[in-house]
Amino acid sequence: NDYAQISWLKYVPKTGDSISYTVVLGTDTVAKGLSATSYQFNNLTGNAYSGKVIVKNAKGVLTSNAFNLSAFSGNYFGANTAVGGTFMDFNIGLNASMIWAFYAINQNSSNYQGFTTPVISGDTIFVGTQYALKAKSIQNGNDFWNMSFNGSPYYSLLYHSGTIYTTFNYPQELVAINSQTHTVKWTYSPVLPNNYTITDPVFANNTIFFGCYFSIYAVDATTGQKKWSFDAQRATCRPTTDGSYVYFTSQDQYLYCVNAQTGTLKWKYNLNTFVDYWRFTNVHNGVVIQSLGSKTVALNGSNGAVLWQTAAAGAPGFKGDTVFLIYNNKINALNLNSGAQIWQGGTSLNNYNDIIVADDKLYTGRNNSYFSRFDANTGATLMPISTYGPNDLEFFEVSSILRINNKTFYGNSSSMNR
């Protein structure tokens, strides 16, 4: 894009004098006598600029503040399960626009919602659809390749070193796919009763972890051979790992911590409530965050002791020792270890939308089809983006992927971050 917009706080002089703003870009004065506290630059041609905003009154310069501009290119990938399982690619510049969209389900189908979270490598986005896995161009949405399967990819795709890992709902199996040759490298199928549940996979230390029926499995990422399994009392839910341990809930109402190398139990904690299959377990800096229907619980990853609790929320975001959660339709920044609130911001947010942390900014969806941005340090609301496309097509679910200047950021519901 060839434009940029800056904004600044209104200067309030002590004397009550009338003031104006002058904007300088490089050595050129591009605007003067402004009363507004924002300015848009057009027809920019370079990759980086510096400048300053000067505050003046009738007597001359009162103060000035410097700014820097750098080239920005961004894409956001949203999904709408209410409109045929549709995935959309949005340009997230100042004037947001839909780049492309495609339907993830077969026509006249009602048994697949097209809610598989994609992954990105280079200029390719890999998306699970009904009975297929697609590699599509981020730029135009065209297919690079399309693999057909008997089942449909489930929940979230995982990508590592040229291999895509995904689980399928029917038949229930874990599959590794070479992303270059689009061929199956190996398949692992747990021998269990029919119609059991399966989770998406997570990765650490060349091992794939996933849940199926009453067990959590560890499978060698190179060979597809089972390393170990741990049996819980009821159906297992979506796991997370910090490399040393694997954390997951079961519908026996316990949160489990098992050794990632051996599968032996370290601790378990009774949540005393039913856990839905889709609820998220996340771990960051030694703290486990568990999403539940009635609350969010933070536990010490070493011993399972409860650190703090707060209202029900979706998948968290993390930045250092700060955790970001959406509850009560606002985004909240809490101290990771104590749960103390640092700031609260936003309005009309969907409590279960993902939060994507991209450097010093937070991105999430809103109930009214806007993509919201916040300052991660202060909670200040940045310019929201409308996500309406052609024919009023819009996304409702956050698909946990943002690409800025060719760097990809995932939300913590994605297998890439769990």
Overall geometry comes to globular
Strand order in the largest sheet: 9-8-7-38-39
Question: Structural class, please?
Answer: mainly beta
Strand content: over 45%
Low-confidence stretches: 107-114, 390-396
Q: What is the average of the pLDDT values?
A: 85
Q: What does the radius of gyration come to?
A: 24 Å
Count of individual beta strands: 39
Question: Biggest sheet, open or closed, and with what strands and sense?
Answer: 5 strands, antiparallel
Number of helices: 0
Terminal CA distance reads 33 Å
Helical residue percent?
under 10%
Topology, element by element:
Blueprint: E1 4-7, E2 20-25, E3 28-34, E4 38-41, E5 48-57, E6 60-70, E7 74-80, E8 86-91, E9 97-103, E10 119-121, E11 124-129, E12 132-137, E13 143-148, E14 158-160, E15 163-168, E16 173-178, E17 183-188, E18 202-204, E19 207-212, E20 215-220, E21 226-231, E22 240-241, E23 245-249, E24 254-259, E25 265-270, E26 281-284, E27 287-291, E28 296-300, E29 306-310, E30 317-319, E31 322-327, E32 330-335, E33 341-345, E34 356-358, E35 361-365, E36 370-375, E37 381-386, E38 397-404, E39 407-410
Antiparallel strand pairs: 1-4, 2-3, 2-5, 5-6, 7-8, 7-38, 8-9, 10-11, 11-12, 12-13, 14-15, 15-16, 16-17, 18-19, 19-20, 20-21, 22-23, 23-24, 24-25, 26-27, 27-28, 28-29, 30-31, 31-32, 32-33, 34-35, 35-36, 36-37, 38-39
